[in-house]
Amino acid sequence: MFWRRFYLLVFTTAMQYHVPPCSCNILPKLLHNKSIGSIVLSYYTMLKEQHSHIFSRKGTNIMSTTQPIRNKQKLQNFKNYYRDVKPDIRNYTIIIVGLNTALRISDILNLTYDDIYWDNKVKDHITVREQKTGKENRILLNKEARYALKKYHDVLISTKMYQTGNPYLFPSPRTPKSPLSRSQTYRMIISAAKAVGIQEHISCHSLRKTFGYHAWKQGSDPVVIMIIFNHSSLSITKRYLCIEQDDKDDVYRSVYQKAAS
């Protein structure tokens, strides 16, 4: 997606200034184009989330990886932050949809109004073609997701973005006919996580991981969870959801305890 947008920008600029796309003369022209900044920022944010072991934040380990939200009380506080503490129905709905569908954030941001609503009502199921895999995924919208989407509906249809024809469920407030940016979504999620005291490395991907983590811990069939995440083995799913780390933590907690007692 990044390179496609970048090449399109290069060729558009080349046509505008009548210079060959491969010419070094195009570089100063590109630097004056404000669009490239947003493209690079979106790409950087995507890399930071997907390859968090490369990017370190102050005070975090350089080998840290995106974590699920394990603590149930902190998870509840995180869910309700944009409902009760800093009310924002759009942000609240994004978080609730992410935590209840296991969709990647790119797929959530690319949902349209028609994907979710039929005759002004929330659908029971939605069908999403995943951008990363190309696979079609049919997803039940559970009670919590439906509640948030129902509350969001009336706010969405009253916005200028919706009324001027932006088809996206979470439309960009600045760019016509575009969804909310990934970088803005990332900042919103990080802000809520910090506000409720979550110390683990959190990103947009944490919503998807949190769904799987709690489904596993609550006793859902691991094979079904593996299928939902399109993994080829249970070991991959355990590692992805950080269940493997939990198993190791349990060993550290229990070693020598029996001998001591």
Keywords:
single chain; 261 residues; mainly alpha; hpI Integrase, Chain A; 2 domains; two-stranded antiparallel ribbon; globular
Polypeptide structure, described:
The chain has 261 residues and is mainly α. The protein folds into two domains: 2-50, no CATH class; 72-206, Orthogonal Bundle (hpI Integrase, Chain A). Helices cover 57% and strands 5% of the residues. The protein has helices at residues 2-17, 26-31, 35-50, 72-85, 89-101, 105-109, 113-116, 143-157, 160-163, 182-195, 205-217, 222-228, 234-240, 243-254, 257-260; strands at 117-118, 121-122, 125-129, 136-140. The strands form two sheets. A two-stranded antiparallel sheet has the order 1-2. A two-stranded antiparallel sheet has the order 3-4. α5 (89-101) packs antiparallel against α8.
